[in-house]
Amino acid sequence: MKRKLEISEVIFKIISYTFLTIFALCCLYPFVYALSASLSSYQAVEYNKVILFPVDLQIDAYKFVLSGSNGNGFWNSYTNTIFVTFYGTIWALGVAILGGYALSKKRLLFRKGFNFFLVFTMWFSAGLVPQYRNYLATQDVFNAIGITDDKWLIVIAMGMAAMNIILLRNAFEGVPSEIEEAARVDGATEFQILTKVYIPMSKSTIATVALFFAISRWNGYYWAKTMLGGNSAEWPLQVYLRTQLEYFQDPDYVTSWNNSYPNISSNSVIFVLIVCAIIPILIIYPFIQKYFAKGVNMGGVKE
Amino acid sequence: MKFKAKAADFLIYDEATGKYRENPEQLVRDDVEKRHWRRVFQLILRDWRLYLMLVPMLFVFICWRYLPMTELLGCFKVGASALEVKDQTFAGFSNFKTLFFPNDTSTYAIDFWRAFRNTFMISFYGLCFGFPMPIIIALFFNEIKSNILRSVYQVFTYLPKFMSTVVITTLVTLLLKKGDTTFSNGIITQLFVNLGWIKDGTGMLEEPTYFRAIYQISGIWETAGYDSIVFFAAVIAVSPTSYEAAQIDGAGKMAQMRYVVLPSILSTVVIMLITKIGTLLSVGYEKVLLLYNEHTYQTAEVVSTFAHRFGIGDASNMAASSYAIAAEMVNNVIGMVLVIGANTIAKKAADVSLY
Question: How far apart are CA A114 and CA A125, in angstroms?
């Protein structure tokens, strides 16, 4: 039997729907605007005729960026970002899985000590300048042993997060120990137990953590800018995007640039870069969304 | 095995012979201890693969999390920043003195206290405006009974969270752009001008008065949807029968909120609030760094961007590097005390440890 809603409940429902609709549209709007503005003509963008949909549809801005008329910086940085994301995720995930697995074992001696060792880095960080000096020293070491490509510095030295290891540790702790014992009786080695039992059984957490790593790599800006600032061939996409934004904020630069490209708005170029930077995330986003929700709920909160 | 060692534990005076002899009990204790360590060694040896797995993690954390902490000693030293810390000259607390107390020769103290105040203010406003937002959104999500529609809303509202800070700040910069001879107004600037909220030709990002509002609103846009996940999980955990019971008792929506929903999400809210208070002094540097400019230092500069500016960025020089280290260390130590305090309170209050 369905009961009639009270008036206060109806009002609350109306408020919720209205509010959420407005909020969701506000969340989405800047991206839609960026897409539309990247597809519009100079006149349309500069005179604010683009509100929601593209006006005077054209793809000149895309041609300009993707064809390399703007130098090969774009494709270079795109490749660099893919490189850093790919190897960075593999490295960080490998380290985190091995570490998380070892920490999840009750029989590990000094387990409390190791956990504290991890958690302490979440409480206290040395700060930017010490970190910077440390990375400079690392760079020297890397150069000394023959790794001259600074991308490896970003891949190996940066992006590890204690939180992700703790997420993995908690997931591994949730695997029943009977299964491990069964595998051990069957003669499985420690490494086989990890790869054949634990990893398949905590797939969703591993996917979450991998995506946390990948997204933080794809989005990383500050250290790449600080460590590779002078070497534009190694820039990842985010650094390139920011530098382009700074160029296109300079009136003199834009005026002379518009002489060569009179039908592209300077804003459109930046919007094209934004669209290119978020497309990979948009593509995987629908698949990962449910995992993220789960990952946040686990959130390291343990009772 | 723990005990306080006394001389008599090791040697016993033998009255018959007038000599000292070894205490047999101690021999047993020694043996137990020896065996204890032998057992530890054997355990490690048995599970050596497990310890080997820890090695990469320990390596990464020692090299790039703990070694930087040794650089913190630089805050007690003066000298060329190109030198290693051990080669710089020890200067006691003089750096802290310059940092804390304004004097005639340097303005670091003024900048530092401004940065410290801004850090606190940004977090405080985040607590006032950014914190309730996800809770409200979670309550509203709960009203939408259609799963498909709710997923659509969720997909939209979580989206900005996954975008990089650069993308977010670039969008903010372009949408809030100031119009002049070369550029047109950004679309939001234009909207505000049309509404008569601001004068034409105002660059909102160049006015210190607008910075905090821009930071908070873009922050809500960025994270409120995603942060609501935790609260939403708490809200949907409320059993439908509780609502029915309340409805039968004639409770309106407000009464249901007050007596059914609020008690069941309270513990989550308290935990999140405590966490938030714990991170009061850790404002992300990236977003501020990308949004501020020399016109808005007044309200925008936080301690970590202070450290960036004087230790790494444009204004860095030999002396300033030490101040930058000192400034951020003070900030982070207070931050750590807050986090540990918050965690302890959470443990006591809700029997939940956050770490």
Answer: 17
